[in-house]
Specification:
The chain is of the alpha/beta class. The chain has 3 domains: 100 residues, no CATH class; 155 residues, 3-Layer(aba) Sandwich (Rossmann fold), CATH 3.40.50.300; 73 residues. It contains 16 helices and 5 strands. It has a 5-stranded parallel β-sheet, sandwiched between helices. Helix 6 crosses helix 7, helix 8 packs across helix 9 and helix 14 packs parallel to helix 16. The two termini are 30 Å apart. The structure holds adenosine-5'-triphosphate and magnesium ion (MG). The site of magnesium ion has 3 residues, from helix 7. Magnesium ion (MG) binds next to helix 7.
């Protein structure tokens, strides 16, 4: 795709008009956060005479990615780049000694559910077993897996998307995660296996969003476990398990089911986790806490609280006010309406 990148200083900071594809691709929340962020970025950049390539570089983005992100044409994972922009804004305000209320999402907190996920992953890793973690949306699966992988040796965390759900797609994804360089597709399985088995057991492969995998890809994972004695964790929503149930009786499913050593299944968040998370946002006003807890119980759990709190804080900061229930309710309503529309 041809990209028009404006590099002259301070030009092209008009408010971007996102493409239809962009709006259709991303959630209303992410687009709203993007709108607020691009507004702030544009204001700071034009005030300070920064060009686009300069801002992109300062944020740590490729210039072309920044250009796509800013103009509302980026179709990859928007949240990642929103977060980079947010971090830069935060750093910028801090450096220029301006008081900023742009809130960052809390860093990892040790919730009850994350402890359960850690225990299950640890079981898979130490016993070279296959485990299945089926937990409701937004409850912190990915965050817990990412933290586990970041703090333990020989743990790999790959995420499957509808584009990488086939055996080959998955293998390419795994190769990238394991930093295996093998261009010959016929040798890919062996190269990945060799890396997983390198330490003679004790490695763990976490496959996130595993509900996306096709059956053959799941069988391929079973093969890795059997041959190379690595632990496998299938992580995803309830569909992962339903899929096995659906074809119960088929030989491959029986083989697979037999291999699932441990399963962690939880549809609803723990109340204590919601409370701990709201507290980690620094929100103590009882009305706000109650309202956000209610949001967390509706489905989407911590993820919903995260996005609502972020929007509410942005609105409060925009008006120069402390956070109140009015901001929280407005943020929630705003999101709800947009989601329905
Ligand atoms: N243990 C935690 N500590 C801090 N924040 C958390 C924690 N768990 C979840 N969160 C927050 O909740 C959001 C959603 O969490 P996460 O993406 O891990 O959920 P998920 O269960 O993987 O959801 P999905 O089903 O959509 O994949 C995160 O972006 C993060 O802000
Ligand atoms: Mg996830």
């Amino acid at each position: 795709m041809n990209q028009h990148i404006i590099t002259s200083p301070a030009s092209g900071w008009d408010r971007p008009e996102p493409s239809e594809k962009f709006i259709a691709k991303h959630s209303a929340d992410d687009v709203e956060i993007w709108r607020q962020l691009t507004g702030k970025v544009a204001a700071i950049a034009s005030e300070n005479g920064f060009g686009k390539s300069e801002v992109g570089r300062r944020m740590g983005m490729e210039v072309s990615t920044f250009s796509q992100w800013f103009s509302g044409a980026y179709l990859g994972r928007l949240e990642t780049y929103n977060r980079m922009a947010e971090q830069w804004l935060h750093a910028f305000f801090e450096a220029s000694d301006v008081v900023s209320n742009i809130r960052q999402s809390p860093l990892f907190i040790n919730t009850r559910l994350s402890r359960e996920i850690f225990d299950t992953l640890s079981w898979a890793q130490t016993t070279a077993d296959m485990v299945m973690i089926t937990v409701g949306a937004g409850m912190g699966k990915t965050m817990a897996c990412r933290t586990y992988a970041a703090t333990r040796p020989h743990v790999y965390h790959a995420t499957i998307t509808p584009h990488t759900k086939t055996v080959h797609g998955m293998l390419v994804e795994l190769a990238a995660e394991l930093e295996v360089k093998e261009n010959n597709p016929a040798r890919l399985t062996r190269a990945i296996g060799a890396k997983l088995g390198r330490i003679g057991g004790g490695s763990l492969l976490i496959v996130d969003e595993a509900q996306n995998l096709v059956d053959d890809a799941i069988n391929q994972l079973r093969h890795f476990m059997d041959i190379y004695q690595c632990g496998i964790a299938l992580v995803g929503n309830d569909e992962v398990y339903t899929r096995f149930g659906r074809s119960a009786g088929g030989p491959s499913y029986a083989q697979l089911k037999r291999r699932i050593g441990k399963r962690l299944n939880r549809a609803k968040p723990y109340l204590e986790d919601l409370q701990a998370y709201i507290a980690a946002w620094g929100i103590t006003d009882p009305e706000c806490v109650k309202f956000l807890t209610g949001i967390g119980l509706k489905g989407g759990a911590l993820g919903q609280i995260d996005k609502t709190a972020k929007l509410a804080f942005m609105a409060a900061e925009g008006g120069g006010q402390p956070l109140s229930i009015t901001h929280v309710k407005a943020a929630w309503q705003n999101r709800d309406v947009e989601e329905i529309a």
